[in-house]
Amino acid sequence: MKHLHLRSVLLIAVTLPTCTPVATAGGPAAQESPPAAALAQGAADQPGSDAWITREIKERLSSAADMPGMEIHVETRGGMVSLSGQVASQADADRMVDIARTVEGVISVDDSRLIIGGKPSQ
To answer: Between 90-101 and 50-63, two packed helices, what is the crossing angle to 10 degrees?
Structure first.
């Protein structure tokens, strides 16, 4: 039994140096990996990410033919969207909410910070 165990240890010791080395921090493979900022940017480009949702809503709002040119702020956290700014009517506010809800990854839309004709919405 001792000979079998000793034989296994020797076999491992002999074959270990021939194994392919694994990349370690600071080695050539580490230098080729993209920086954290690039990874974060890649994640922001993924459908459903907060940055992607915000960008998509802004694009859809600006390209909606029946929406007047208004400055609307869109903020997204964890798929929850908050719209703020001034709109001409409640109908415009409702249309913005409908547009935002159609974007992939949106969980909810808060329009309580939209100002309708100079008054905060209810």
So the answer is: 130
Report the DSSP beta bridge partners of residue 120. 115
Stated pTM of the model: 0.60
Neighbouring CB atoms inside 10 A of 112's CB total 10
Q: What pLDDT band is residue 15 in, cutting at 50, 70 and 90?
A: low
Whole-number Å distance between alpha carbons of 38 and 19: 32
Nearest to 56 by CA among 103, 92, 110: 103
As given in the structure block, the two tokens for residue 66 are: 């029946």
Enumerate residues 6+ apart whose C-beta is below 8 A from 72.
58, 61, 83, 84, 85, 87, 96, 114
Q: Are strands 80-87 and 72-77 parallel, antiparallel or unpaired?
A: antiparallel
